[in-house]
Amino acid sequence: MTAPKTLYDKIWDAHVAHESKDGTCLLYIDRHLVHEVTSPQAFEGLRMAGRKVRAPEKTIAVPDHNVPTTLDRANGIKNEESRIQVEALDKNAKDFGVHYYPVSDVRQGIVHIVGPEQGWTLPGMTVVCGDSHTATHGAFGSLAHGIGTSEVEHVLATQTLIQKKSKNMKVEVTGKLLPGVTAKDITLCVIGKTGTAGGTGYVIEYCGEAIRDLSMEGRMTVCNMAIEGGARAGLIAPDEVTYQYCNGRPHAPKGAEWDAAVTYWNTLFTDEDAYFDEVITIKGEDIAPVVTWGTSPEDVLPITASVPSPNDFDGGKVDAVKRSLNYMGLQTGTPLSDIMIDTVFIGSCTNGRIEDLRAAAAILKGQKIKNGMRAMVVPGSGLVRAQAEEEGLADIFKEAGFEWRLAGCSMCLAMNPDQLAAGERCAATSNRNFEGRQGRGGRTHLMSPGMAAAAAITGKLTDVREMM
Amino acid sequence: MDKFTELSGVAVPMPLINIDTDMIIPKVFLKTIKRSGLGVNLFHEMRYDDDGHEITDFVLNKPQYRNSQIIVAGDNFGCGSSREHAPWAIKDFGIRCVISTSFADIFYNNCFKNGILPIVLPKEQVDLLMKDAEKGANARIQIDLLGQTVTSSDGVVMNFQVDDFKKHCLLNGLDDISLSLEKCDAITRYETKVADSHPWV
Description:
The complex is a heterodimer of chains A (468) and B (201).
Chain A: H1 7-13, E1 16-19, E2 25-28, E3 31-34, H2 40-49, E4 59-61, H3 80-96, E5 99-100, H4 111-117, E6 126-129, E7 143-146, H5 149-158, E8 160-163, E9 167-174, H6 183-194, E10 202-207, H7 209-212, H8 216-224, E11 233-235, H9 240-246, H10 255-265, E12 278-283, E13 290-292, E14 300-302, H11 316-328, E15 343-347, H12 348-351, H13 354-364, E16 374-378, H14 382-390, H15 393-400, E17 403-404, E18 425-428, E19 443-446, H16 449-458
Parallel strand pairs in A: 3-4, 3-6, 4-5, 6-7, 9-10, 9-12, 10-11, 15-16, 15-18, 16-17, 18-19
Antiparallel strand pairs in A: 1-2, 2-8, 13-14
Helix pairs in contact in A: 2-5, 6-8, 13-15, 13-16
Chain B: E1 6-14, H1 21-24, H2 44-47, E2 70-73, H3 85-93, E3 97-100, H4 105-112, E4 117-120, H5 123-134, E5 140-144, E6 149-151, E7 157-159, H6 164-172, H7 176-181, H8 184-197
Parallel strand pairs in B: 1-2, 2-3, 3-4
Antiparallel strand pairs in B: 1-5, 5-6, 6-7
């Protein structure tokens, strides 16, 4: 009898194409997602060496980071550098023959939303992209992580990555979530507990009743931020919820192939008594709606708490918190729900899917955003946008005073014109609150879509439960 | 790729924890389609004011650290995005080695692809080297990749761990794509097997 295996062990073992004596493996990559920012140097490297893309049929490219999200973008990208980068991807996709969703395609959007939406991401696969939020795809029980540009070139040329195995961590979220608590609160809460380096060297498997109860979209939100906890990847074992999501998508298997796939996918779970190097357990009912107050995703507190003091921390974190509070313009002891905001951003690969927009719209229905508030919704893909329009969500956002944008990464990382000015303070559904992330001097508070919608109405960080 | 064998140089002290890739190279500089020329923008928002003038207090702007080849950093250096522009900028500035108690996974791997050696040491040793770094140009730290040692300016020798394969590539400046392509047959065998057993992939 073989030793019990974790889900990670099983996917790993199924993808080792070559193992050297020292344990260094060539891990086969089933899906390679590509965007315009981290790929141009990799394609150029192929050209210089006279190499081809080994598996163009497994390579999917879409521009997302640089693209404008304003309605006039069909007129072209005004920023020259951004335009050149997107044009380079247009050309590289054509020259190397990979699947491509150009800006003009209704299916274009954030690469981590497009992949699952089109059925490219399936259980048991290995998925990589030159983007740290590739962790998103782990929600399907696929081993998915970000890579640098040199590794992008390596995958393009060889369809493999040189890897050594990570350790196994289990994060179990037991029981039920309370009303107003979402997948975003789970994932932020876990990072608050482990710290941003707590997952370094690990692949995390999220499990437990509260995770099982999540939709596919909620599971993607949880896995998306595994990287913010330092983990190489986050995983959730596939189940009926996963299969229902995948079934019928353009690139999902059909007919007998579908049945064979499901039979295989049903073997993708952690065996009883499998070994985890680290186990963390959180009670679902202990999780409250949270926000970040600092400049690291680990700076998480329930909305009912107050801004902490540097003295609440130890070691290097004391100075880091002093710096954070200074950057964020916050005073120790201020209730988080007294912090005024002037900008709201709903979108990103963390929270730019249809359920996120529904959750925000449920709070905004019949309401108006605070006077002077700048608020925008940036759907994660053209198809999410179309569906939201069909469901009447777009009208709710527009009537409330939100800008209704086209798909892209937008203000999550502010590579396109959607940026914060110095001193502006944003309630954001994205994933990083680093200094300057949304624009130089801009201040970011991370939260769920419902919480961001509530903040748009009141003009300050707000407990969404008061508005439900 | 440039080889890395030995290094003796001035180290710049950056004790802040969680120095992220947005700090190392802000997104505005990710729009390049080249790998070169990013050094001038390394730590841009900490290094320059809104008008583009150097901020004199920032450590890399101090005369004694302008030619540093080593960074001694707080915990969890390089966290955040996968942007290889971060090690490109570090290398272009002239830094060849970063020492910390821990690194973010993707950043750590990206360093090795660019001839930069990231070294993990226990906290007390990083603290000692941080003090060394604070002495400025009078304290040179020595790195020996072959022997896997860091030597402080006072002659304290510390051993560090590094993956054998990564070490081999760095010492010899090897392009790992060429190495992997030598195993092309194994990759083809794997593809043939999976095409049969898991045709939907």
